[in-house]
Amino acid sequence: ALAQQQRAQLASLETVQQGLRVGVSTVDVALAAGESIADVLIEMRQVASQAADPQLSAQNRQLLQDRYVELADQVTRLVDSADIGGRNLIANGASDLIVIASDDGASTITVAAQDLSIGGGVVNVSADGSALATAGGAQTELANIIASIDALSGALGALGGGGKALTLQD
Protein backbone atom coordinates (compact mmCIF):
# COMPACT_ATOMS: atom_id res chain seq x y z
CA ALA A 1 0.00 0.00 0.00
CA LEU A 2 2.88 2.35 0.80
CA ALA A 3 4.52 1.69 -2.59
CA GLN A 4 1.21 2.38 -4.36
CA GLN A 5 0.82 5.65 -2.44
CA GLN A 6 4.39 6.69 -3.37
CA ARG A 7 3.73 5.90 -7.05
CA ALA A 8 0.56 8.01 -6.98
CA GLN A 9 2.41 10.90 -5.34
CA LEU A 10 5.25 10.63 -7.88
CA ALA A 11 2.75 10.63 -10.76
CA SER A 12 1.07 13.75 -9.40
CA LEU A 13 4.45 15.48 -8.99
CA GLU A 14 5.29 14.66 -12.61
CA THR A 15 1.97 16.19 -13.68
CA VAL A 16 2.75 19.37 -11.71
CA GLN A 17 6.24 19.56 -13.25
CA GLN A 18 4.79 19.10 -16.73
CA GLY A 19 2.32 21.94 -16.09
CA LEU A 20 5.13 24.17 -14.82
CA ARG A 21 7.20 23.45 -17.95
CA VAL A 22 4.26 24.26 -20.24
CA GLY A 23 3.79 27.48 -18.28
CA VAL A 24 7.47 28.39 -18.69
CA SER A 25 7.22 27.73 -22.45
CA THR A 26 4.11 29.90 -22.71
CA VAL A 27 5.85 32.77 -20.92
CA ASP A 28 9.03 32.32 -23.02
CA VAL A 29 7.03 32.63 -26.25
CA ALA A 30 5.26 35.75 -24.95
CA LEU A 31 8.58 37.31 -23.90
CA ALA A 32 10.22 36.58 -27.26
CA ALA A 33 7.31 38.21 -29.10
CA GLY A 34 7.36 41.16 -26.69
CA GLU A 35 11.07 41.72 -27.28
CA SER A 36 10.44 41.67 -31.05
CA ILE A 37 7.63 44.21 -30.55
CA ALA A 38 10.12 46.43 -28.72
CA ASP A 39 12.41 46.27 -31.76
CA VAL A 40 9.51 47.21 -34.06
CA LEU A 41 8.60 50.16 -31.81
CA ILE A 42 12.16 51.44 -32.13
CA GLU A 43 11.79 51.30 -35.92
CA MET A 44 8.42 53.08 -35.62
CA ARG A 45 10.12 55.79 -33.56
CA GLN A 46 12.66 56.33 -36.36
CA VAL A 47 9.90 56.60 -38.99
CA ALA A 48 7.83 59.00 -36.85
CA SER A 49 10.94 61.07 -36.20
CA GLN A 50 11.48 61.47 -39.94
CA ALA A 51 7.78 62.31 -40.42
CA ALA A 52 8.09 65.10 -37.81
CA ASP A 53 10.05 67.13 -40.39
CA PRO A 54 7.72 69.94 -41.57
CA GLN A 55 9.71 70.27 -44.84
CA LEU A 56 8.83 66.71 -45.95
CA SER A 57 7.30 66.38 -49.42
CA ALA A 58 3.82 64.84 -49.68
CA GLN A 59 5.31 61.87 -51.54
CA ASN A 60 7.94 61.19 -48.85
CA ARG A 61 5.35 61.63 -46.09
CA GLN A 62 3.16 59.00 -47.80
CA LEU A 63 6.13 56.61 -48.03
CA LEU A 64 6.74 57.03 -44.31
CA GLN A 65 3.06 56.47 -43.53
CA ASP A 66 3.07 53.28 -45.63
CA ARG A 67 6.19 52.03 -43.80
CA TYR A 68 4.56 52.87 -40.47
CA VAL A 69 1.48 50.80 -41.38
CA GLU A 70 3.75 47.86 -42.30
CA LEU A 71 5.39 48.10 -38.88
CA ALA A 72 2.04 48.31 -37.08
CA ASP A 73 0.91 45.20 -38.99
CA GLN A 74 4.09 43.47 -37.86
CA VAL A 75 3.21 44.21 -34.22
CA THR A 76 -0.20 42.63 -34.77
CA ARG A 77 1.36 39.54 -36.39
CA LEU A 78 3.81 39.18 -33.49
CA VAL A 79 0.98 39.33 -30.95
CA ASP A 80 -1.07 36.79 -32.92
CA SER A 81 1.87 34.40 -33.32
CA ALA A 82 2.68 34.29 -29.58
CA ASP A 83 0.28 31.38 -29.20
CA ILE A 84 1.41 28.08 -27.69
CA GLY A 85 -1.08 25.29 -27.16
CA GLY A 86 -4.00 27.69 -27.50
CA ARG A 87 -2.57 30.07 -24.86
CA ASN A 88 -1.49 33.60 -25.73
CA LEU A 89 -0.45 35.78 -22.80
CA ILE A 90 -0.09 38.98 -24.86
CA ALA A 91 -3.28 39.01 -26.95
CA ASN A 92 -6.21 41.36 -26.40
CA GLY A 93 -8.50 39.76 -23.83
CA ALA A 94 -5.94 37.12 -22.82
CA SER A 95 -6.56 35.53 -19.46
CA ASP A 96 -3.90 35.13 -16.79
CA LEU A 97 -1.89 31.92 -16.77
CA ILE A 98 -2.59 29.95 -13.59
CA VAL A 99 -0.35 26.93 -13.00
CA ILE A 100 -0.77 24.36 -10.22
CA ALA A 101 2.44 24.40 -8.21
CA SER A 102 1.92 21.61 -5.67
CA ASP A 103 0.98 17.94 -5.86
CA ASP A 104 -2.16 18.54 -3.75
CA GLY A 105 -3.32 21.34 -6.07
CA ALA A 106 -3.54 23.82 -3.20
CA SER A 107 -0.72 26.05 -4.42
CA THR A 108 -0.77 27.93 -7.73
CA ILE A 109 1.41 30.46 -9.54
CA THR A 110 -0.31 33.16 -11.57
CA VAL A 111 1.36 34.98 -14.45
CA ALA A 112 -0.64 38.08 -15.35
CA ALA A 113 -1.51 38.43 -19.04
CA GLN A 114 -0.23 41.61 -20.73
CA ASP A 115 -2.24 43.02 -23.64
CA LEU A 116 0.45 44.01 -26.15
CA SER A 117 -1.96 44.50 -29.04
CA ILE A 118 -2.07 47.98 -30.58
CA GLY A 119 -4.40 50.14 -28.50
CA GLY A 120 -4.51 47.56 -25.71
CA GLY A 121 -3.12 49.87 -23.06
CA VAL A 122 0.59 49.09 -23.40
CA VAL A 123 1.28 49.69 -27.10
CA ASN A 124 -0.74 52.81 -27.90
CA VAL A 125 0.31 53.84 -31.38
CA SER A 126 -1.48 54.60 -34.65
CA ALA A 127 -2.32 51.40 -36.52
CA ASP A 128 -3.17 53.14 -39.81
CA GLY A 129 -0.34 55.66 -40.02
CA SER A 130 -2.74 58.61 -40.05
CA ALA A 131 -0.88 60.15 -37.11
CA LEU A 132 2.03 60.85 -39.47
CA ALA A 133 -0.12 62.86 -41.92
CA THR A 134 1.30 66.09 -40.50
CA ALA A 135 4.57 67.05 -38.81
CA GLY A 136 2.63 67.94 -35.64
CA GLY A 137 0.80 64.63 -35.68
CA ALA A 138 4.10 62.81 -36.09
CA GLN A 139 5.49 64.72 -33.09
CA THR A 140 2.53 63.59 -30.97
CA GLU A 141 2.91 60.03 -32.25
CA LEU A 142 6.58 60.12 -31.29
CA ALA A 143 5.54 60.82 -27.69
CA ASN A 144 3.04 57.92 -27.88
CA ILE A 145 5.77 55.57 -29.13
CA ILE A 146 8.17 56.57 -26.35
CA ALA A 147 5.43 56.03 -23.75
CA SER A 148 4.64 52.65 -25.35
CA ILE A 149 8.30 51.57 -25.18
CA ASP A 150 8.34 52.44 -21.46
CA ALA A 151 5.05 50.63 -20.81
CA LEU A 152 6.24 47.60 -22.81
CA SER A 153 9.36 47.41 -20.65
CA GLY A 154 7.16 47.17 -17.55
CA ALA A 155 4.89 44.54 -19.13
CA LEU A 156 7.87 42.40 -20.15
CA GLY A 157 9.26 42.74 -16.62
CA ALA A 158 5.99 41.41 -15.20
CA LEU A 159 6.01 38.46 -17.63
CA GLY A 160 9.65 37.75 -16.87
CA GLY A 161 8.99 37.75 -13.14
CA GLY A 162 6.15 35.26 -13.60
CA GLY A 163 8.35 33.06 -15.77
CA LYS A 164 11.08 33.10 -13.14
CA ALA A 165 8.61 32.05 -10.43
CA LEU A 166 7.54 29.08 -12.59
CA THR A 167 11.15 28.08 -13.28
CA LEU A 168 12.10 28.26 -9.61
CA GLN A 169 9.07 26.17 -8.59
CA ASP A 170 9.93 23.54 -11.21
Spatial order of the strands forming the largest sheet = 1-2
Uncertain runs? none
Helical fraction equals: 55-70%
Q: Which percent band covers the strand fraction? A: under 5%
Task: Encode the helix/strand succession as letters.
Answer: HHEEH
Cα shape = rod-shaped
- Determine Rg (CA atoms, Å): 21 Å
**Tally of separate helices:** 3
- Main sheet properties: 2 strands, antiparallel
- Multimeric organization: single chain
Number of strands: 2
- Global structural class: mainly alpha
Query: Mean pLDDT, rounded to whole units?
Result: 92
Q: What is the end-to-end distance?
A: 28 Å
Report on the structure:
The chain is rod-shaped. A hairpin with a 7-residue loop joins β1 and β2. It has 170 residues and is mainly α. It has three helices and two strands; from the N terminus they run ααββα. The model has no long low-confidence stretch (mean pLDDT 92). The protein starts with a helix and ends with a helix. The protein is 64% helix and 5% strand. α1 runs antiparallel to α2 (58-81) and α1 (2-51) packs antiparallel against α3 (135-169). The longest helix is centred in the first third of the chain and has 50 residues, at 2-51. It has helices at residues 2-51, 58-81, 135-169, and strands at residues 97-100, 108-111. Strands 1-2 form a two-stranded antiparallel ribbon.
Keywords:
single chain, about 170 residues, mainly alpha, two-stranded antiparallel ribbon, 3 helices, about 5% strand
Which SSEs are present, and which pair or pack?
Layout (H helix, E strand, L loop, with lengths): L1 H50 L6 H24 L15 E4 L7 E4 L23 H35 L1
Antiparallel strand pairs: 1-2
Helix pairs in contact: 1-2, 1-3
